Amino acid sequence: MLSLSRVSRVMPSDDKLEKDGKLTPAEQGAAGFGRQFAVAFELPFVMVAAIIVGGLLGFFLDEWLHSKPYLMLAFGFLGFFAGLRDVLRRLSKS
């Protein structure tokens, strides 16, 4: 019968736990690439979502206050600048 330590190590990557958390340069590069790839995929969605939310808020306020298209444009621009601020904040964090 196999010992419990042999059963718990199923994948070769599980041996990394025994290295005291130190990654090889290749592993560090792969982790950095993955992080950058995730940020690059996330940023366009953040930007577009902010513009859409601002534009929709302005559109509904325009419908309610009968001030077409001024509030939609104003809130669309506010959404653009809020999205730009959020993108720059996320880039400076990573």
List keywords for this structure.
single chain; 94 residues; 74% helix; 0% strand
Tally the helices: what do you get?
A: 3
Strand content: under 5%
As residue ranges, the low-confidence spans are none
Q: What overall geometry do the principal axes of the alpha carbons give?
A: rod-shaped
Query: Approximately how much helix is present in the residues?
Result: over 70%
Main sheet attributes: strand count, strand direction, barrel closure: none
Instruction: Tell me the distance between the termini.
Output: 47 Å
Structural class: mainly alpha
- Overall pLDDT, averaged? 83
Work out the radius of gyration.
Answer: 24 Å
- Helix-strand string: HHH
Work out the number of β strands.
0
How would you describe the overall organization of this protein?
The longest helix has 41 residues, at 25-65. Helices cover 74% and strands 0% of the residues. It starts with a helix and ends with a helix. It has a domain at 44-94. The protein has 3 helices and no strands. The protein is mainly α and 94 residues long. The chain is rod-shaped and about 60 Å long.
Question: How would you summarize the topology of this molecule?
Answer:
Layout lengths: L3 H5 L16 H41 L4 H24 L1
Helix pairs in contact: 2-3
What's this model, at a glance?
The chain has helices spanning 4-8, 25-65, 70-93. The chain is mainly α and 94 residues long.
